């Protein structure tokens, strides 16, 4: 009869426990990420929050999509919408709106839902304020 040490019995369990914990951690992370978007995965979804704009300092730099940022184009950065998605952004202070194309990721400031180009900021009449409340509606 062979007597096994307690360490020999525990060793095979540790990798299984660790992989089980990793699976639960991954499942939890995916659940949290799935609940972060209010768009619901199609056109017609919307969210409200604050918008800011970016221009001079970023002009000509590569965006997350790989294209160069053009402050004079009607584009925007959003955290979750796919690149190429068209959105209608409405300034809730004055009801001005503009249709933009998502080509970058951001904003990375709490409470902000979209960063728009300088050209979009001019059309939304938000250049002076810098940050305004907006509604963002996914069109496609």
From TrEMBL:
GO terms for biological process: cell wall organization; peptidoglycan metabolic process. Gene3D superfamilies: RlpA-like domain. Its EC number is 4.2.2.-. The keyword Cell wall biogenesis/degradation applies. InterPro entries: RlpA, RlpA-like_DPBB, RlpA-like_sf, RplA. GO terms for molecular function: lytic endotransglycosylase activity. Keywords: Cell wall biogenesis/degradation, Lipoprotein, Lyase. Residues 47-136 form the RlpA-like protein double-psi beta-barrel domain. It holds the Pfam family DPBB_1. The keyword Lipoprotein applies. Lytic transglycosylase with a strong preference for naked glycan strands that lack stem peptides. Belongs to the RlpA family. This is Endolytic peptidoglycan transglycosylase RlpA.
């Amino acid at each position: 009869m062979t007597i096994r040490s307690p360490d020999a019995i525990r060793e095979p369990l540790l990798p299984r426990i660790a992989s089980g914990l990793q699976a639960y951690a991954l499942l939890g992370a995916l659940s949290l990420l799935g609940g972060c978007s209010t768009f619901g995965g199609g056109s017609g979804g919307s969210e409200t929050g604050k918008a800011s704009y970016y221009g001079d300092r970023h002009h000509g730099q590569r965006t997350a999509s790989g294209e160069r940022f053009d402050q004079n184009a009607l584009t925007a950065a959003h955290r979750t919408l796919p690149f190429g998605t068209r959105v209608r952004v409405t300034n809730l202070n004055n009801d001005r709106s503009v249709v933009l194309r998502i080509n970058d990721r951001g904003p990375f400031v709490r409470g902000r839902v979209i960063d728009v180009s300088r050209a979009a900021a001019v059309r939304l009449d938000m250049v002076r304020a810098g940050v305004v409340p907006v509604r963002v509606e996914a069109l496609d």
